[in-house]
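>> Question from a student workshop board

For tomorrow's exercise we were told to take the sequence and the ligand below, predict the bound structure, and bring the output to class. My setup keeps failing. Could a helper post the expected result so I can at least see what it should look like? The ligand is manganese (II) ion.
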Amino acid sequence: MEFSVFTGQANEVTADCLVVTLDQSGALSASAAAVDSASNGFIKARVDEGDIKGAPGKTLLLPAVSGIAARRVLLVGSGEGEASTVTAGKIVQAVAASVASIKGRIAVDLTALASEKFPQAWWAEQLVLAIHAAQYRFTATKPEKEEAPKADALTWIGEDVTTALTIADAKGLGTSWAKDLGNMPPNICTPTYLAEEAERLSDEAGFSCRVYDESELDAMGAGAFVSVSKGSVEPGKIIIMEYKGAGDEAPHMIVGKGITFDTGGISLKPGAKMDEMKYDMCGAASILGTMKTIAELKPAINIVAVITSAENMPAGNASKPGDVVTTLSGQTVEILNTDAEGRLVLCDALTLAIGEYKPQTCVDVATLTGACMAALGKVNSGLFTEDEALATELLSAGQYSGDRVWRLPLEEDYQAGLDSNFADMANIGGPLAGATTAACFLSRYTKDTRWAHVDIAGPAWGGDGTSKNSTGRPVPLLTTYLLNKAS
Ligand code: BES
Ligand code: MN
Ligand code: ZN
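>> Workshop helper replied:
Here is what the output should look like for this input. Compare the format with yours to find the bug.
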């Protein structure tokens, strides 16, 4: 998308669609009033007749208003007073839904909505992301018969928000790519495919990229990773990309779970909706999406991005409940349930990458537990950390981006749930606090590192039937968090 900033009056801007606002009482914003007076009261007449009242996110598309330069006008309700996080989201999504499929240039005047909490740059960023989302289509396995019309240029009326627009466009690109990877069928999106995509991105962006294959990991002693991967004919991989934008400073690490299909293994999952377990690599997808955004923006920060990828299958040579394996850290694990495989592939990846790169901070993202989704639904991801500063940074990145996280406990008292009489720990706790016991398991592999775990089981995908779709989350969270660190 092409961007520009316009500092004149809304009625003078040349565009295929001009977006202006009115509030809940029907009062026109300054920009809507300018359009109204240039068009002999055309807007006011529509409001007086009750065509639109100004509730947040209500829209009215008016074709060819006489007296103004733009070819259409979209009126948008802004609600009452200062927008809240929820109403702001509604407004931006309503605008995007209306304009994303208008061919050509969109000009938007949302200046009346800016507040201290949500300045113009925030509205600009959210709008660009919402347009990316509204224009997203998955076409890899079902091409569109005809390409839909698309807005491809945006004029921001108001302050110079060029930087915000550029950042948002890069975040949108990364998020859409994460959606594509998530939606890709599991016979195509295998660990090998993820490694090839990581190598392709790294070549384009100048990242270094190292792929550890299953046999190498086996030889190194990554017994937890291999215990998951060995039951599949698709070879597992741990993929490590490195971006250097800040000299020799210790890197910030992000790690994603990439189970390209989770059958549960010998602890087989029920059949209903099992297709959705292709989304069990959405953590990995968001790592790639985030690195795509980083490749576009080249911020001043060092990042190490890790993907731990395998297919979890039942097979003659698959792990069995009761197996005891030795992890790369040397700690042993009794596998009581082969469906708790995410933590097994993550623990060895964490040991390997933390040992190799000694990061300043480490954040892992994983579709780890149904329990987290039961607790938080699809609105918030679960955030687990004992590092208060890291928690604050992630919570605020979530609030700013709308890709929200909610903190759940990671207290010592929960660790005993993992006790095993045959190994250092079991891979599952009891029936209670399942999201926390999973985080407790990971904490045993990140001991001396500033680390946070984000359970994205709820937010990573949504819908049902024909609305089933990857959300691209947590790319907005991770990119916002990392860019904040760089600035
Ligand atoms: N990938 C699943 C978690 C999941 C389930 C995410 C449904 C999103 C929707 C994970 O590997 C898993 O199976 N976890 C088990 C853990 C249990 C055996 C302790 C779960 O949550 O049931
Ligand atoms: Mn599982
Ligand atoms: Zn899983």
